[in-house]
Amino acid sequence: HAGVVQLGAALDRLAALGMPLMPEQDGLVRVPRGTELSLTLSLERDAREALATLGGREYRLDQTHGKFEARSLLAEVGTFPIAVVARDTLGNSSDERRIGALEVVERGVVSGEDGAPIPGARISVFRISRGEGERRLWDAAAYGLANPLATEANGSYALLLPQSGEYDIEVEAPGFRRVRLALPITDRAVF
């Protein structure tokens, strides 16, 4: 068709907290609320610009090195389609194409028995290796993350565990007893 751009879009990378995100078995990518996202797309070579829609907001994607990139911070909880429209050098636009979906979930919160949030609580994630009988601090740095991490002033935290396996989480705060929780992960966990 004259005047219509054929959109050949591929989602190259969706990342949060410096870590690539992949859809889970239900096709959704899950992230904690307030997590900065990075979206990278490949489009056909005649595409001059691209607009992505995410969470009801439109983002103009910047083109660098033949890729289109945008950053977003989603503050609302919910499920949001990721859609893209491209324009060619003549200003013709493609039809909108859905390329994925994102589910934004509540951040985790550490609170006392009275329900009051605990700021500055230390959260440590350990990887359990049953075959070796070991419990080791999970290497979050390999994914650009911190471990241990501290809760924010409102007791909240964001944690992504990209690997399946057996974990436990240890939470410590001055004036409170240490708590350890077993956490078997079959896919990827978001808190």
Reconstruct the topology from this structure.
Elements: E1 10-16, E2 19-20, E3 29-32, E4 36-42, E5 47-54, E6 57-64, E7 67-73, E8 78-88, E9 97-105, E10 108-109, E11 122-129, E12 134-137, E13 149-150, E14 156-157, E15 160-161, E16 165-172, E17 179-185, E18 189-190
Parallel strand pairs: 3-9
Antiparallel strand pairs: 1-2, 1-4, 4-7, 5-6, 5-8, 6-7, 8-9, 10-14, 11-12, 11-13, 11-16, 15-18, 16-17
What would you note in describing this structure?
A nine-stranded mixed sheet has the order 2-1-4-7-6-5-8-9-3, with no helix packed on it. The protein is built from no helices and 18 strands. The chain is mainly β. The N and C termini lie far apart (47 Å).
List keywords for this structure.
nine-stranded mixed beta sheet; disordered N terminus; 191 residues; five-stranded antiparallel beta sheet; mainly beta
Strand content: over 45%
**How widely separated are the two ends?**
47 Å
Helix content: under 10%
The major β-sheet equals:
9 strands, mixed
Shape type: elongated
- The total count of strands amounts to 18
Give the averaged pLDDT, no decimals. 78
Physical arrangement of strands within the biggest beta sheet: 2-1-4-7-6-5-8-9-3
- Unreliable runs: 1-9
Structural class: mainly beta
The DSSP helix count reads: 0
What is the rounded Rg?
20 Å
SSE string, helices as H and strands as E: EEEEEEEEEEEEEEEEEE
Brief digest:
This protein is mainly β and 191 residues long. It contains no helices and 18 strands. 0% of the residues lie in helices and 52% in strands.
